[in-house]
Design brief:
32-stranded mixed beta sheet; twelve-stranded parallel beta sheet; disordered C terminus
Amino acid sequence: MSEHHLLLCFLFFLSFSQILLSSCFSFSNSTKICPHGQSLALLHLKKSFSIKKSHSRFCRFPSYPKTEHWKEGSDCCSWDGVSCDLVTGHVIELDLSCSWLSGTIHSNSTLFRFPHLQRLNLAFNDFSGSSVSAGFGRLSSLTHLNLSDSGFSGLISPKISHLSNLVSLDLTSNEEAEFALDGFYSLVQNLTKLQKLHLSWISISSVFPNSLLNRSSLISLDLSLCGLHGRFPDNDIHLPKLELLSLWGNFNLNGNFPRFSENNSLIDLYLSSTNFSGELPASLGNLKSLQTLYLSSCQFLGSIPASLENLTQITFLSLDGNHFSGKIPNVFYNLRNLISLDLFENNFSGQIPPSIGNLTNLLKLDFFDNQLEGAIPSSVYGFSSLSSVRLQYNLLNGTIPSWLYTLPSLVELDLSHNKFTGHIGEFQFDSLEYIDLSMNELHGSIPTSIFEFVNLSSLYLSSNNLSGVLETGKFEKLINLTDLDLSNNMLSLTTSVHSNSMLPNIQILDLSHNNISGMFSWNVGKDTLGRLNLSYNSIRGFEMQPWKSMQILDLHSNLLQGPLPTPPNSSFFFSVSHNKLSGEISALICKASSMGVLDLSHNNLSGMLPHCLGNFSNDLSVLNLRRNQFHGIIPQTFLKGNSFRTLDFNSNQLEGLVPQSLIICKELEVLNLGNNKINDTFPHWLGALPKLQVLVLHSNHFHGQIGFSKIKSPFMSLRIIDLAHNDFEGDLPEMYLRSLKAAMNIDEGNMTRKYMGDDNYQDSMMVTIKGSEIEFVKILNTFTTIDFSSNKFQGVIPECIGNLNSLRGLNLSHNYLTGCIPLSFKNLKMLESLDLSSNKLSGRIPQELTSLTFLEVLNLSQNHLIGFIPQGSQFQTFGNDSYYGNPGLCGFPLSNRCTTDEIPYPSQEIEAKFESGFDWKITLMGYGCGLVIGLSLGCLIFLSGKPEWLVWIIDKNIDKKIVRNKRSTRGRGARIS
């Protein structure tokens, strides 16, 4: 090529390059041009917000204040979070997510002055007080809108459904926002291009729209916790692009497991906490791309289909909280990607499938609360990443397999409430933080490796057969231990010389029901220990430590001697009952101003009660001083608004009057003053206490007539009343008996049976049955009894007692009662014990009492009853001692046989039935026929003398009747004289 041609080419190249560079420079300059109006709008928007880091605290990505560097005079297209069109310079994308913003977005906000905006992301800020207003509907170019986790509330404007170009809409976690009526339906109908629709936590309160299942463009659909109801469509789902379907938390959404075609891309399916039910179909195996399946807390039942083995990509499988049953299928050989397997709280039975051992990537295995049995599989091929094993509340047995002791990543191990036997092995790694092997049949000593777990926070080995001597020094390395429960074993304890200040973070220490003896002086958890239970041991001495956080201190049922320990001032529960403590109660006990339960019962404590016992704590609900030797008077002052639920002073030597200040104890349910020396009249004013259920005045010096009350309906809640062994006189208190509504019409079938008290303390009491005192360690809320025995009551027994049809026990013995046993007693269908002995009752025992089929104890002895003892039902089980001392009684079981005139009369009910069914027409017809036949026979006898055939028939029938009567009376124990 000539030099001339080369020169021309070079000149052309320079000219073209200049043009190209000029064009590129002009284009570059154009991208930096931000329309002035848009810059002003953005700066105005910035000023409408305040900035604080906490406003984006829930952001899942790094957050920072993007608007902080927006400066006037600079190009807005270069600002953080702002993107512009490369040609026009118009703002087309605004990403202010996680920008620490706070403020209100009004409908006239400058935010809505960007008509070319295509993407808007305001997620993870705080726009409390803002609504999804009509202004958003003016951004007609939007394809992506994300307002999630930003505090929007109120009605979502229907204008949002005008954004017909939307491909992605995310309003997640704006809990106080809601769609107007038909608003959600309009949105679904109009936004036909949607690929992503996330509305979780938005109130929709609608049925699931069928049209959503026709959107072939859908990739991600999240309508969890939206208040959807009705039935999910049963038709097949043909959404080939759908990767996420989340409906969890729609508690009233019904349906069967969705049926997906084989041509699906589903990766994540969340149906937990809905009302979906039925069996899982075999088509579950079509979801071959599925990685996450959450079906927990639904109503699914039946067995798991074998097609589960096709889900080879599954990583999270959660079927817990359903009604699945049958055996767990042995299909896990190919599910090697599985990370978490949750099958707990179902009804699975049989053995754990051996293919579980192939899940080499498993992190969590949870089968708790089923009916699995047999041994844990012994062959596994990995489990190097397994961190949590929860198999509690099953029927598993055998020894704990060796591989469980060799897992290098194991953090949580719970095998409690099974039937495992053998020794606990030595663990090879110290990664464990939580161990629960309680409620099994394990024996031997606690392995030494456990005492090397520096990260261990909870250790529960209670209710086994563990034995051996524990040296407190062994716990030296367990510096992170917060919960230690070794109760219900056979362990003993020795305190090391250098064991002080161990377990610096311990909060709960339970060593109850063991073989600990001697002096307990273990100084643990000085700043943290809140609950210490040493009950049911043989501890003779206890050294109180300066615990700053102690709330529950339980020392009952030991051999403690000497003076009463003073509980820490922080104590809420303090029990030293059933020991051998002596001396007086120090007034220092009243410094525990947060005390809720104080139980000093069953000791040898004496002296007078400190006056402060009634008013030192507003939280005190239980004060139990039973079975000591206290004397003097009951504390007279109680705090207004106090919390007393139980006051038990039984079996002391207290005297004086019942303090009328008890009237302010509005929460009082149990008042037990029995077995003291109180000298007073009946405290009728207690009838005003609205919750009083138990009143025991047994064995005191109460006297006088009970009389009437000025209270309209006294003792409305009372169901246990014991006035026995006092000097009450006069008639039985009919007014009070009529008011005992709590002993009437108890519907046990529809009420929850529970014991009086709460988790911290349950009430107990003594009940006299057949002259013997029986302790009820717990009192059922359905138990009702009345004991007025051993007083001087007179007069007749009121019929109104028959209205107390839920009564379990009635004791009116050893009084001066007269008259008959009321027929209304037949209504006491729940009665188990009836004692009317040692009175002056007369008349017959009502036959109707045989209908009391629950009656186990009956004592009618030492009265003036007469006649035949009723037979049948429970009466067949009562012996002579139920009736002795009534000379007029006869029949079984007494040896005194009844004469013919003592054969029992029909009951009034039978007589009434007979009278109501009596037909005079039939009777007159019988009389007429009999009259004709009688006259004819009379004439025949008169004319022909005594006919031998007739005399033979009559004599024979008379002989048969006499023999039959003898046999029947002999069978009933009667005597013919």
